[in-house]
Design goal:
Blueprint lengths: L1 E4 L1 E4 L2 E8 L13 H21 L3 H14 L2 H12 L4 H18 L3 H22 L10 E5 L4 H6 L5 E6 L7 H9 L3 E3 L4 H6 L4 E4 L4 E4 L3 H24 L13 E6 L3 H8 L4 E5 L14 H15 L4 E4 L36 H16 L4 E4 L5 H17 L7 E6 L2 H5 L1 H5 L4 E4 L1 H8 L18 H16 L4 E4 L2 H4 L1 H10 L3 E4 L4 H9 L3 H12 L4 H9 L3
Parallel strand pairs: 3-4, 4-5, 5-6, 9-10, 9-16, 10-11, 11-12, 12-13, 13-14, 14-15, 15-16
Antiparallel strand pairs: 1-8, 2-6, 3-7, 7-8
Helix pairs in contact: 1-2, 1-5, 2-5, 3-4, 4-5, 9-20, 10-11, 11-12, 12-13, 19-20, 19-21
Length: 554
């Protein structure tokens, strides 16, 4: 038996035969022309995304929806047509065109754009498979899938009844495969050096997703231990599901609002049925994706009204579109940026596209008027008071255009470090602040969340992130009326939830699948215990030390 160590990416344990993923290069005569094959690929990817949405996994569905847009990208298809005109086979033409686009992204030298390059290759290969009628081989027995990195569409397509675990030689905790593994409950380890060579000669692999270890041909004792871990995880998941409808409260009765993150109107009703008390983050990028023209006010208003109706009396926080940068939209021509996370996106699009956000804000107020209830509006990527002034002006102008609409609550996402430092002044201008811990963590720690070499620095339990959250909570408490929520992945991590409640956060917004586990963890501790834990954690040296302390009940 050999042990190969990597980075934990998704919890759990499993054993299975190695199944090594290798990219298939399609060849042979054309069964479909380029346009029909691209349309088929788009429909196929959209079907996979819809399947994730049906499971309440909206954030994960957005990964595939971005790929669906790539499949119909005019530049990709035009480049392929030019090659076909020059005599290339249809499948070869789209593969080569995809390679050129991917290489252009990678030449910029940015990890995020490099990851997008990998997605382009995946999409081009899918189009080529439709052209030639080629299909990918699937799993035939319970297996541990091994790869350098696993394309997100392939991750979703694999038979989950046979998919025991995922082990990658590359990747990071924030790679698409890792994110999807966590959402699907599949144990995963990433960054395992020498994995593919070892797996090629193995008959069985064991994966410990909590410890970040892959066991090559595990012995009987190791196999028994991994099986026990898997059985315990199944039992814990069953118990967690039974807790989903209970209030989110500590052992001594301190209540915290349990809210849901959703990515389309249909998910609102599902979230409340799963135990949500509010919608703490309604991502609105769905209204813009896959369109060649901007959605008009009426189209947007209809979608937002559907979510407000489904919520009943529960609050719905509608986030203004966080597009641009790493989330391109076909009808917004934008040049690639070296670092899109620090680029022109979200609220920063207001000057470049003056009708984009005013139309959206009017649509939210129009929906509120039609349904007859208040909505909450949240602006992403707010950095300072000038950004807050912009948001307040957008709301005031929309209110003037739609007299009689219920006045919305207005809030901001705190994800830019400058907003943390200015939280005392910002809190006096808004009704609420919602901390986006995903971006805040990478900005505070200067750790690109798409860079596997920095995986250990991408943990929101880092003392610096905890101190930032504490600063925002204190600033909000000093303001006349400003609530604090957290809507990043940290809220759905039981360890993170314990610390956030101890820091004084009043609302945790997460994917509905996390409700049970978070409620179980919180219900086992008193508020005083969590406050002491949070205070101690701020003085620790690393995220690893904090996680150990939370696990030990310190």
């Amino acid at each position: 038996m050999r042990e190969l160590r990597g980075t934990p990416a998704a919890p759990g344990a499993a054993i299975g035969a190695p199944w090594i993923h290798r990219a298939v290069v399609p060849s042979g005569p054309a069964h479909l022309d380029l346009v029909d094959a691209a349309a088929a690929a788009t429909a196929e990817i959209e079907g996979l995304a819809n399947g994730l949405r049906d499971l309440g996994q909206d954030a994960e569905a957005e990964i595939l929806e971005a790929q669906a847009l790539m499949a119909m990208d005019p530049e990709l298809l035009d480049a392929a047509r030019q090659r076909i005109a020059n005599g290339a086979a249809h499948a070869d033409a789209v593969i080569d065109a995809g390679e050129d686009v991917a290489s252009a992204f990678e030449a910029i030298g940015d990890e995020i754009l490099s990851a997008r390059g990998a997605d382009v290759r995946d999409v081009a290969a899918r189009i080529a498979r439709h052209i030639t009628g080629t299909t990918l081989s699937g799993l035939e027995r319970r297996s541990v899938v091994v790869a350098e990195d696993l394309p997100p569409s392939v991750t979703v397509e694999l038979d989950r009844s046979l998919l025991a675990a995922i082990a990658l030689e590359g990747g990071s905790r924030t790679s698409h495969a890792a994110i999807l593994s966590r959402s699907l409950g599949i144990p995963a380890v990433v960054g395992v050096a020498g994995l593919r060579e070892a797996a090629a000669a193995a008959s069985e692999l064991g994966v410990d997703g909590d410890a970040g270890i892959v066991f090559v041909d595990p012995d009987a004792g190791t196999s028994a231990r991994l099986t026990s871990i898997a059985n315990q995880a199944d039992e814990r998941a069953r118990r967690d599901a039974e807790l989903a409808m209970r209030p989110l409260a500590t052992a001594d009765g301190h209540r915290v609002i349990c809210a849901a993150n959703i990515g389309d109107p249909a998910a609102a009703a599902e979230a409340f049925a799963a135990g949500a008390e509010a919608i703490g983050l309604f991502r609105t990028e769905f209204a813009f994706a896959g369109r060649t023209t901007a959605p008009d006010e009426a189209t947007q208003a209809e979608a937002y009204a559907a979510a407000l109706r489904a919520a009943g009396d529960g609050e719905v926080v509608v986030r203004l579109a966080d597009i641009g940068g790493d989330k391109p939209i076909p009808f917004l021509p934008m040049e690639p940026e070296a670092n899109p996370f620090l680029g022109v996106r979200a609220i920063r699009l207001a000057d470049r596209y003056p009708e984009l956000l005013p139309t959206q804000v009017r649509a939210i107020l129009r929906a509120s008027q039609v349904v007859g209830r208040q909505a909450s509006i949240m602006a992403p990527m707010v950095a300072d008071e000038a950004d807050v002034e912009l948001v307040l002006r957008l709301v005031a102008d929309a209110a003037a255009a739609i007299p009689g609409a219920p006045a919305p609550r207005v809030g901001i996402m705190v994800e830019v470090p400058s907003a943390v430092l200015l939280a005392d002044s910002l809190a006096r201008r808004v009704d609420f602040m919602s901390i986006g811990t995903n971006d805040l963590t990478q900005y505070l720690l200067a750790a690109d969340r798409s860079n596997p070499a920095l995986a250990e620095r991408q943990d929101p339990l880092h003392p610096a992130v905890l101190r930032a959250v504490a600063r925002v909570v204190v600033a909000a408490a000093a303001a006349p009326a400003c609530d604090v929520a957290v809507c990043g992945e940290m809220a759905g991590d039981p360890a993170g939830a314990l610390l956030l409640i101890g820091l004084g956060v009043g609302e945790l917004s997460m994917e509905p699948r996390a409700f049970g586990a978070v409620k179980r963890a919180v219900g086992e501790r008193t508020r005083a215990d969590l406050e002491a834990l949070a205070l101690a954690a701020q003085g620790m040296r690393s995220a690893a030390e904090v996680r150990a302390a939370v696990g030990a009940g310190a």
